[in-house]
Amino acid sequence: MVFIANTNLVPEDKIPTTWKDLADWDVDAYGKIAIADPTSSGSAFTQLCTILFLYGEEKDDYAAGWEMVSKIMPKLEVKNSSSLAHKDVFGGENALGITLEKAAIKYSEDFMKVIYPTDGTSAVPDGVAIVKNCPNQELAELFEEFVLGHDCQARQNAEWGRRPIRSDVEPVGLKPLSDITLMNYNFDYAAGNASDIKEAWQDMLVG
User: Is the pTM of this model over 0.70?
Assistant: First the structure.
């Protein structure tokens, strides 16, 4: 998960470099930060959980993380589509957005800048699975092998900007993971408490 900024609208020295910095964003000067709706967007839900897990602890249901979210929320403009979180930054509707790496790196224009939060960000893989007792087990296995195969992973990276999961596929056009500060994403908590997290977000959003 990354920030994307339009430097035609905000000077580079004013662009946030951490999630915490988002709470200090100058809305009067630069407008609100574009983000998709975590209740309907999987990527935005991951962004929300990233803040929770980065600043809070599971023992109290990430209370400190929710406190950080409450500070950031007034700075946000919630979009009804995941793609608008980056498209509206490119189009000049917003100076800053929160989005997926693969979406942000598509914009190679000099005025577009991609920021990896230095306090930590999440690298959450998409999943592929075979449904138990499915009617076409053999075909399902072939498809899974294809998706996870070297050629498919390489082409997904080259053509769509997706980060490969294979260690034998060197990502092209992406910042090395070794240069990114990764946080510990609590997959079990996010999956097991998704409904409660979304409800808490919605309650906070509407006040």
Answer: yes
